[in-house]
């Protein structure tokens, strides 16, 4: 922070307390910029400032400001004219109120700055304001002047520093008229459940892990061209199945999100002609409970089936044994009966001798 050049010096007006501060940019751009060239020979294309009346190039020292009136006439405005403007915030960030953070519409937020304490005397009041903001869980709304106009700002605590977000004036934010669909659309509970499931599947992410992939790809192209090599080609995007309706799109999105996170997607009993649709529960927690119930149900059913099979086997074996015994008894009785019914053999007659 010590090596960052301040863009504005002044003070924070906190009631009767004045806190000397330096305004420094809190953000920086890493975008790759290009120059315009003449395609035929690679020469630089430059812009020159030319006076329309004299048709000649003029230097920066000869250029001033003017306001263009409705009829096209120019009204010159000098730096001296601007220095006499009745702005109490010319060198002061004047705090006008303390409000909850959710009172600030994000649409109003503009550029962000850090407020650095201006020397040792500013350390005590700076720390006082920072700790007061922390304890109150509020943000400060302030007015300040920068680059020739008065602006609105919001002060909040970031780490051990005080940051200020430039805010647009309320009348600079357009109302969202004519933006929302003008047709009557009904969203049912099942669609909302699928949307919730998709949100749960995507989960959260650490913002610090996000980066500008377009800039990285552009750097690769520039490096390849500088080395005289062919620039890398982007891979062909995967072509997905045709989405039949909103429900199919939501279900395919949930499935794709699960697969990208390494989770197993639930299998579907049926399939559609052009798109595979997976019916998933509304929320993860419900899915886990349902799976647990199904697993418990399967185990209980298995136990019941095993017990039933064992009982049936025992009953069958018992019946078989009883049947065998009865059959053997019948056979024995039949033999006895047969023996009784057979007539006794007559003794052979003896021949008399003469």
From TrEMBL:
UniProt biased composition (Acidic residues): 265-275
Signal peptide: none
Pfam family, one: Ku
InterPro entries registered for this protein in UniProt: DNA_bd_Ku70/Ku80, Prok_Ku, SPOC-like_C_dom_sf
Region Disordered: start-end pairs: 254-354
HAMAP family xrefs: Prokaryotic_Ku
PANTHER family given in the database record: NON-HOMOLOGOUS END JOINING PROTEIN KU (PTHR41251)
Protein name: Non-homologous end joining protein Ku
